[in-house]
Design goal:
Largest sheet: none
Number of helices: 7
Number of strands: 0
Distance between the termini: 28 Å
Shape: globular
Number of domains: 1
Structural class: mainly alpha
Radius of gyration: 13 Å
């Protein structure tokens, strides 16, 4: 997230992919949820608002399942990202994409984000 904040979009993805793999190896749902939120910002930076809206929904659903409350600075960054996505999509399309994301399991949303944003789908953990 820090790398994205500097505008280094290309540099952010390798760090994010490594974080996903690390958190998967630990079966760390809070960390994977944070990765989903960061992928949302990456999707916006890569001009993928539909994907970003789905990831907004997937992140919200993952937080509902884990009880994770984001830190205030993260909440503020996510609020700005959500507002940007809402500005890029018609209201009904935004709502439909968020609902679609809410129905995805965390692993499915992460795989979609990795594939769509030029990464590789993470290896399944056993």
């Amino acid at each position: 997230m820090d790398v994205l904040a500097t505008g280094e979009v290309a540099s952010a993805q390798p760090h994010l992919v490594a974080a996903v793999r690390h958190y998967q190896n630990l079966d760390h749902l809070d960390g994977l949820t944070r990765c989903l939120g960061t992928f949302t910002a990456l999707a916006v930076a890569r001009e993928e608002p539909r994907l970003a809206a789905r990831l907004i929904g997937a992140t919200a659903a993952a937080r509902d399942r884990t009880g994770l409350t984001p830190w205030p600075l993260v909440s503020e960054a996510e609020r700005r990202t959500i507002e940007r996505v809402q500005a890029l999509l018609p209201r009904s399309e935004y709502a439909a994409q968020v609902a679609s994301g809410r129905s995805q399991p965390t692993e499915g949303a992460l795989s979609e984000a990795l594939q769509a944003l030029g990464g590789q789908a993470p290896a399944a953990t056993g």
